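TEACHING EXERCISE
Course module: macromolecular assemblies
Task: Read the component lines below, then compare them to the predicted structure of the full complex.
Student: A.B.
Group: 4
Components provided:
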Amino acid sequence: MQPKTIVEKIWEKHVIHQETDKPDLLYIDLHLVHEVTSPQAFEGLRMKNRRVRRPDKTFATMDHNVPTIARHFISDPVSRKQMETLYDNCQEFGVELADINHPDQGIVHVIGPELGLTQPGKTIVCGDSHTSTHGAFGALAFGIGTSEVEHVLATQSIWQAKPKTMNVKVNGRLSPSVTAKDLILAIIGKFGVRFGTGHVIEYTGEAVRALSMEERMTICNMSIEAGARAGLISPDDTTVDYLRGRRNVPEGDAFEEAAAEWKALATDEGASYDAVVEINADEVEPQVTWGINPGMCLPVSGSVPHPEAAESPADREEIERALTYMGLEAGQPISSVPIQHVFIGSCTNSRLSDLRRASEVIQGRKVHPDVRALVVPGSQTVKQAAEAEGIDKVFIEAGFEWREAGCSMCLAMNDDVVPSGERCASTSNRNFEGRQGNGARTHLVAPEMAAAAAIEGRFVDVRSYFTSPV
Amino acid sequence: MEPIRKHEGVVYPLNRSNIDTDQIIPKQFLKRIERQGFGQFLFYNWRFDDDDQPRMDFSLNQDRFKDATILVAGENFGCGSSREHAPWALQDYGFIVIIAPSFADIFYSNCSKNGILPIQLTEAEVQQLIQKAETPGYSLTADLENQKVTDSEGFEASFTITPYMREMLLNGWDEISVTLTLEDKISTYEASRG
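Instructor-supplied answer key:
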């Protein structure tokens, strides 16, 4: 039999209808919904008198817009209206909702895996580009627009042209205290913000196999930052161990059967991809972005680039624009840049292991007097688990604010905003202009690096925290 | 959605690559639950200063582009967030055709669901159009039926588009209605999976 990639295997199992000159009609196993990209879709159903075809395959939460403090009353009337609209829509159409007061509430890409809704081999969509996160489980998961949200609600299917596949092969092993976040930033830094366009990325290689599920989610999360609508990792024992015992997964013998099926989805030896790129994990250092897209990143030991070094006039202009927006000078060491804000959170880095590792850096230290630092757990479940371990106390005693779950300062739709002209070391995924607030300057880093930046008030190589005495 | 066959209009050049959807429609405007009315917020942080006054150095605010309906931009247009508010804002502002050397996947697909025609031309062709569009009133004709872009000075470029997307845009079809004609196949599929 012809060896196949995991993408081909999942695709073949989900095609409902095929004809010449058309994309395939693909069945969707799980549709995740949140308050920002769904109201117009539900309204569309209502106008045409349509129903949600499979409420049992649809799950909603509130994350983008929710306040992370004082949640008993949402003071912004427009935000409140959007949340109430989701509540009403879920009631009307029979969709299960983890609303702002629900113990399962959290960032949609954190709670899907937590609740065991995310499983290998599933097709998963959500009106959010970071849906690629769920690919960590060997699911085919991608972001869709609101018209497609409406389409999936009405038909439980989507028209999709079969994507090209790309193998991002990560050789060797990451050095101690170099994280999944550093690896994905280094990949995007090396190959650019559009190398994945039109492809589904599969991450392979020794370094990827060695990652925990939470680290794999960090990698797959940022596939979209490389232009790829989806990124995934073939399931293995790590995947199965994570899922065992979770709500919504089979139990007992049925679980063992499912586990065998999941592992059989892994890409076959000798399967071919449309493209292959390689990177050596052992060369990756802790990364810091300096510019206005995630490809503009540097090792923490590096310096901001010179526009003259650009390969084309367009690139040169982009570097110049980034330097102006970021208030940086060409050639400036990135470690010399003072920061005023630290944000630990987002669907990239807000899980328990992220908070644990950051708290190890913080332990017994104080946040720099010029820095305001925020920790926003990815879900209420993460928050509870962290509190049970005393992680909240470590952060609070150091001077961090400890908040309720949500997207928060990653996109600053709520009150968690970075003021114009100020800098934030952020564990999120996008350093676009104005992302964390109009005029705000974002530097993307790993949780450990953000924690060290909070203490020092500037970027330092966090590895020095683990090798030298306090 | 409105069908689109052939469109002639004034060109607005925005010579930047990697224009992300956070720039096209900043997040503070995503709280609305309507589909209409996003045009006023298009490129908001580029068009307006901190006091919400128009920045006259941003060319879209200049009189010569006030009737523009064709946007020409650099590579990877529409990258980032999946927010369909981006094509809604472009369309509500008046843009019907967007030309770039490449588009982000989700944005490209979102355009086609809203009757916006995204046209991929070569980098050289796009640069040529960006130069030409500096002349006030410069206009182009985008012909979806024949898959060509032309101007009155002899510029001509052809473009590719999938037959499915071409058909959807030419007819202005509601995709859900099309899919629901296959409802029995969806049910059969569901039954086969148990």
